[in-house]
């Protein structure tokens, strides 16, 4: 069956497998600064050809239930082979200075030339800097038109959209104030994508997380209020919320590990304390407070050890947050970030693992007790207001984190049993991004499900050998399997 989903193909460097990855979370170094500009653009760029027709409540419904997310990454040296195998006519190719020549060469020999957008300032190629709402709508309208001219089903859908008066997105009259921070960024961008005008005021540096949490909950309430009952009650909706934590590789949370001891030998005490409080064992949202004497004040970016680590971590946070923003905007749901402290319970997880693998008496009781302790620790770290925001009146939750949030107990029942929860690890970053952004929606006609091949590997004397075929035959004889 035909769909109006847009396939986005980001063409990455041919040597991407050999590139250095960032220290804490594992993103390839080619992402920054040019490729992240592409991801930033994909937060707001249409994910479905029908996006340009919808506004307001229609846009929310289309995003929550309809538009799929199909952003894939392909090495430049493989692009010609990929295009030669046939491709979705609703495809957009994205490139940078490193890959623009590969893309232009590959598409020059195609009959149906794909839409190509680049970060590079290349004559004859659409540049990201040229994009605004009017230009994007024109590009997608042209892409949709070319695809529809060769596909009768797509053409019927296009004609239907135009007949319903959806030809131009209307302006949305929604003005908000928001607290600006990495933890609120994805929420702000969901609302901006909707059409809201938002005045952002940054959160002042502080050891407290109160403003961060209240800022997220305020925007969460705005997004929830825009999701109509038809969406909230629909079994076809994607998720009700994203809960995420930009975790780093688990072993890096252990401050006494060899790699940290080796680095500490080259740092003064103030710098060691800064490294531990900010990058290794930070508890909040990057807002840790550190008492330091006037004579020990230093600029960490000027330090040959701390500077590169800080820059790596900031690039990782930008990559991770942008990825979350794309998913949240695609599903039109709030994305709530957890404090860094939820990743600091490694000692309790280690004890749980030891009990599971032990033969001690009454291990069930001990295990239950440790699970309870771990759950209570998580609740304390997250806090009641944020917990309520994440789980109250929700059913489907997407978690992006490296700790077992599914063990968290809500009203004495683990989250994994009370909610429909799926969890994607946040490390390595390359894998996390690929899994989150490449979620194509497949549509199959009923007839495709009627031609069934049963392959069995049972022994001839196995008592359940013929159970499946007998059930199928019975259903067929009873007229319950039409068209089989």
Task: Summarize the structure in words.
Helices cover 42% and strands 12% of the residues. It folds into 3 domains: 7-170, no CATH class; 171-442, no CATH class; 446-477, no CATH class. It has helices spanning 34-44, 56-66, 79-84, 100-107, 133-149, 152-163, 185-194, 210-226, 229-232, 258-264, 269-280, 306-331, 346-356, 363-382, 384-391, 415-418, 429-437, 467-477, and strands spanning 7-12, 69-75, 91-95, 115-118, 126-127, 175-180, 197-202, 241-244, 335-337, 396-400, 409-410, 413-414, 420-424, 438-439. 33% of the residues are buried. The model has no long low-confidence stretch (mean pLDDT 90). With 484 residues, the protein is α/β, with parallel strands linked by helices.
